[in-house]
Amino acid sequence: MTNARVVWKEVFFRRSPKDKWLPLECHQFNFSIGPTRIVYMKSLLAGFLPFEGRDKFQNGRGNMLIKLLKYFTVANDAGPEMDRSALLTLLAETLIIPAQALQNYIEWFPVDNHSAKAVIKWGNIKASGIFEFNEDFEFTRFFTHERYQSQGNNRYKQIDWAGVTEGFTVKNGIKFPARFKGVWYQDGEAFEYFKGTIDNIIYDIGEFTI
Questions:
Q1: CATH second-level architecture of 3-198?
Q2: For a FRET experiment, which of 82, 134, 140, 203 has its CA 20 to 30 Å from that of 176?
C-alpha cells in the first residue's frame, strides 16, 4: 500500500466546547511514500455562508488554509508549529495505511503489553506519541504532548492531544477504525472538537479526484 483515500461520512467539527457541532464534507488522501496527508473540507457557516478548508502535510510542511466564499482567507496557519502538528496528525493515522507503520521514517519502542511509542522523523522534524491498544490489540488511541493548538494570528500553544477510535470495520479483509475523534486535553478537561465515521478506505488509488 502506498496511498489511501479515506471515505468519510457524518463528520462534525466545533471550535469550542460551547459551540454547536458543524457538519463537514471531507475528502482525505494519505500517502505512505512521502509522507503526505491532504484533507479537503467544506461546509456552510450559519447555514448559508460557504467555506472551504485544506489541511495538509506535504513536502515536509504543514498548512491549514480556510477560505470563506472561495475568495476571503480566514486562516492560513503555517510555520514550525504547524509542521510538527500536521506530522503528528499523520502519525496518529499511521495504521490507516498499515504498510506505513513499517516505513524507515517511523521507529517503534515498546511501552507495555498494550501500548507502544512511535517516533517519526521527516526532514528536520522529529515528533512522537503513544499508541494504545485494547485486549484484542486493536488500536484505540494515539496520545501526544507535542502538538500545538492554533491561537489565531499564527500564535500557537502546546497542548496535550489525542486521536481516539471507536469500533472497527472490516472491508476487503482489512480492519480499520469505524469512528475517529480528535480531542484536546487542557486544564484537566477533555475537549472533543472533531468526530467522524469512516465509511471505507480505498488503497492504491491511481487517480485522485474529489
A1: Clam (2.50)
A2: 82
